[in-house]
Amino acid sequence: MKMSYIAVCFALLLLFGEAQVSTAVTCSPMELSTCANAIISSSPPTATCCSKLKEQRSCLCQYVKNPNLQKFINSPNARKVASTCGSPFPNC
């Protein structure tokens, strides 16, 4: 019984480890280019924009610190787009 418990725990550990590896995101601000129109013109974000925004969410704090991106990322429209997509900005 003890051996099967250890085997199950080991299997779960392997599965959990693989899930973390497969969800790694490469931070690339260009991935958010589909959101540019929504941010600049206040138009509703597209499904692609929302998908990319959710994918890049863990990178947003990094983008906020980039002087070239700050004016777009910190804009009220960018936060509105993120909120509309159901992916509010993290507290950086």
UniProtKB/TrEMBL annotation:
InterPro entries for this protein: Bifun_inhib/LTP/seed_sf, Bifunc_inhib/LTP/seed_store, nsLTP2
One Pfam family here: Tryp_alpha_amyl
Domain Bifunctional inhibitor/plant lipid transfer protein/seed storage helical intervals: 27-92
Signal peptide: 1-19
Matches recorded under SUPFAM superfamilies: Bifunctional inhibitor/lipid-transfer protein/seed storage 2S albumin
Keywords: Lipid-binding, Signal, Transport
Database matches in PANTHER family: BIFUNCTIONAL INHIBITOR/LIPID-TRANSFER PROTEIN/SEED STORAGE 2S ALBUMIN SUPERFAMILY PROTEIN, BIFUNCTIONAL INHIBITOR_LIPID-TRANSFER PROTEIN_SEED STORAGE 2S ALBUMIN SUPERFAMILY PROTEIN
Protein name: Bifunctional inhibitor/plant lipid transfer protein/seed storage helical domain-containing protein
